[in-house]
Amino acid sequence: MTIKKNLFKSFFLFLSLTIMFLLAVFTVNTTYTAQAVTPIYNFNPPNSNPSRPNPPQNLRATLINSNLVTIRWNAVPGAKYYEVYVNNKYNKTTTSLFYNVTGLLPSTKYDFKVRSYNGYTYSAFTNTLTVTTSTSSLGTPQNLRATSITGNSIALSWDPVPGATGYMLYKNNQLVNQPLLPKYTVTKLSPNTTYTFKVISMNSTAYSGYSNTITITTVNYMLY
User: Fold this and answer.
1) Cα angle vertex 98, ends 92, 101, to 5°?
2) Could you give the domains of the chain?
3) Which burial class, exposed, middle or buried, applies to 22 when counting CB atoms under 10 A from its CB (0-12, 13-18, 19+)?
């Protein structure tokens, strides 16, 4: 009977030691075989050194008058916009491939150059284009005024300019028409909306400077 009890105690002790050993081994393996978790995202930063765009090519003057020069250039692939410089000073940013440089003096030499921008960086400048304005000049239209205002139209008039064969009317700095007479009715407007207007005179050899700018608000139909 005593022998059986001793055998049972020995077996129980052996089993306990075996379990403790296995637990210790499992703990050691778990602690020292752990590996870093690889992130599941893949972040690619934007290009911090994009290629520089090419400068515009074939800069040229397509219209030369006493107060205005129109310059044009070829498109640059990838360009977002272009910057125009007159006499080495910034003048205008445009998305077009031409620009009308106005407000110039008759018989005066001007230097023009353009560069492109691709959203990251600027190109080099074009070669400098030198142009001399013509000697003939026209008077600036005077007394620009509204003679009738409705909810969707504005009638405008101004004093005639001697030597002018036509006029260029601008609404919110955009050309809307080239009337031959010193008057014009702008239509298709929105009620209760404010607009600005200005006009220049022209003939076959010259453009004038801009007239005074007037600001007009159309009639609000809701008041009636």
Assistant:
1) 50
2) 60-132 (2.60.40.10), 145-219 (2.60.40.10)
3) exposed
Token output for 92: 């205008």
Rounded to an integer, what distance in angstroms lies between the CA atom of residue 164 and that of residue 42?
66
pLDDT tens digits, one per residue of 85-139: 999 999 999 999 999 998 888 889 999 999 999 999 999 999 999 999 887 667 8
Helix, strand or coil for residue 21?
helix
Q: How far apart are CA 110 and CA 127, in angstroms?
A: 14
The pair of three-digit structure tokens given for residue 114, joined into one six-digit string: 């353009």
Which regions in the chain score pLDDT beneath 70? 1-18, 20-50, 136-137, 222-224
As a residue count, the chain comes to 224
- Asked if 71 contacts 128 with a C-beta cutoff of 8 angstroms, the reply is no
**Exposure of 27 in the CB half-sphere (CA atoms within 13 A):** 6
Instruction: Give the strand order in the sheet containing 60-64.
Output: 60-64, 69-72, 98-101
pLDDT at residue 40, as a whole number: 47
Share of the chain above pLDDT 90, in %: 59
In single-letter form, the type of residue at position 215 comes to T
Helix (H) or strand (E) run with residue 141 in it? none
Closest to 136 in 3D by CA, of 62, 208, 60: 208
